[in-house]
Fold this sequence. Notes:
Blueprint: H1 2-14, E1 16-22, E2 29-36, H2 37-61, H3 74-108
Amino acid sequence: MAEQQKSSTLKRLQSRYRLVVMNDDTYEEVITFKLSRISVYIGLSTIFILLISFTVALIVLTPLHFYIPGYGNNTNRVELQALKIKTDSLEQTIQYKDKYLNNLRQVLNGGSPAQLDTNMLHVPTPEISND
């Protein structure tokens, strides 16, 4: 039963049809197409995919995407990036000040700072030439 349905469906998709465009006044054939259901399906699917692709490319690759609500415009994006940079630098400055104040409190309370710099620095001595 299932094989019969598959074969009948496949036959129905592959069976050929003729589409004739005729002049209504003279009944003259203007153009004739030989089609099958599967060719019509493939043709319409291809046209649909091409239209979607063209629309997406048009929106993404041109300035039209700025007209989409919620996307913003170019100046807003530049301002947002500048604000993000300022915010990051302000957060870093606050962290440095908090660390400084914590170390100052520890020193005033008689403790030692949280981190001591114990690295030895090798400072090269300048060579003096006797000319």
